[in-house]
Amino acid sequence: MADTAHILILDDDTDVAYAAQMLLRRRHGRVATLDDPARLSNLLEAGAPDVVLLDLNFTPGRIDGAEGLAVLDRLRALARPPAVIALTAYADVPLAVEALKRGASDFITKPWDNARLIAAVDSALARRSAAAGAAATSGLMGDSSAMRDVKSMIASVAPTEANVMVLGENGVGKELVARAIHAASGRAGATFLAVDMGALPESTFESELFGHRKGAFTDARSDRAGRFQAARGGSLFLDEIGNMPLASQAKLLTALERREVTPIGADRPEAIDVRIVSATNLDEARLFDPGVFRPDLLFRLNTIVIRVPPLRERRDDVPGLLHHYLSLYEAQYRRPVRELAPSALERLCAWSWPGNVRALRHACERAVILAAQDEYRYEDFGLAMPAPAPLPEAPARLAAVAAHDGADGEFRLGALERETIAAALDKARGNISLAARMLGLSRAALYRKLGKHGI
Ligand SMILES: Nc1ncnc2c1ncn2[C@@H]1O[C@H](COP(=O)(O)OP(=O)(O)OP(=O)(O)O)[C@@H](O)[C@H]1O
């Protein structure tokens, strides 16, 4: 990493720039200097640097930092913005803080301590390479022994044509696992198509999955391919299969057994060429209940089963995920890079994460937007409320909400919303699609609310 890193030192004081260059050259491949920001465009044409050490004042006599901050804004607007370390005069803390607010990843005061400068550059490079690595492995992060097992299962099954069933609670990363299987398979060049089976109404199930011919029914104004045809040559991800009505299960079973589908209104079946990966958040006791899921369909789908454990059972993954998503949102919202206060990290690792990685991701987004201190505090993540307790019946529930919120029996909308969502999830046995429908929300809107309430 260090050998190929490209570092730029932007400082009008050539002695300072030269000293930094000599220091960093011992460790890094390309260390360039520039004394005039007006020539920055030429330099960027040759490729954006990974890290820029940026002096904030160029014109002699100017100390307001406006020139440097303007360069910082320009660098942050690049498609692949470099990490920027601001160089400020000793004691110019307000200017350093302003640079951090505008997206600088760190600051160094002049004259600097060599070890501190080297550490700042190394840490900026390490963050960048962690983010790039995560993107390259289709985003499935985590190095706990449980996640290592999941990744090694993916590597073993991906090259085969075996049907894979991914099991785990909402938000554990089942879709990411399915995508990783596709990406490592011989079908990687073709489509990966995800279908939310829980959201397909029984009445349009066949038309959506198998397609239809023009005129087959009143609304069939033209031929339409189903999901099986659209994913031809690739992988079809059947998500939320635990929520399919039994009648739809029978139709899916027939298609999988015969390896062919007949579009509605067609007189001939079409062979299917898809790799099936399915997923559900049903616990296994319910999945094996024939009243809920047909055993013969289960047998077709679960040639290989991958279980993705909830985040509370792989807490070793929490720090890496936090750093990943905090960095991602800091870059996305152009917010300063902050460290996590050690006490916050400890409490976040101990949190039960009922919404798993999705909830962690939402919590990080919230923290990046709302943090107002130098470090992220636990409160910034919006997880202060305990996980929902079993719900009392309706009238008692309202009283409980009022009591929960204190304030002389005054109702608070937020708490009521949280209770309602928890009740819907309870009733839908954790099925997100069903709960969203019961609440009159889209799945995406429900996910946002789950994140907001830390459920
Ligand atoms: N191991 C992981 N590394 C990085 N991000 C993850 C990981 N697992 C999940 N995520 C993120 O969490 C969110 C939820 O992941 P995903 O949709 O794959 O979960 P899921 O189990 O399929 O959820 P659901 O059952 O609710 O459909 C996504 O934003 C995803 O990027």
Can you offer a commentary on this structure?
With about 450 residues, this protein is of the alpha/beta class. The protein has four domains: about 130 residues, Response regulator (Rossmann fold), CATH 3.40.50.2300; about 160 residues, P-loop containing nucleotide triphosphate hydrolases (Rossmann fold); about 70 residues, Helicase, Ruva Protein, domain 3 (Orthogonal Bundle); about 60 residues, Arc Repressor Mutant, subunit A (Orthogonal Bundle). Helices cover about 45% and strands about 15% of the residues. The chain has 19 helices and 16 strands. The protein has a five-stranded parallel β-sheet, with helices on both faces. The longest helix is centred in the N-terminal third of the chain and has 23 residues. The two termini are about 40 Å apart. About 5% of the residues have low confidence. Adenosine-5'-triphosphate (ATP) binds next to helix 7 and helix 15.
Characteristic terms for this protein:
transcription regulation, five-stranded parallel sheet, binds adenosine-5'-triphosphate, phosphoprotein, 4 domains, alpha/beta, transcription, 16 strands, Rossmann fold, Helicase, Ruva Protein, domain 3, 19 helices, ATP-binding, elongated, 455 residues, single chain
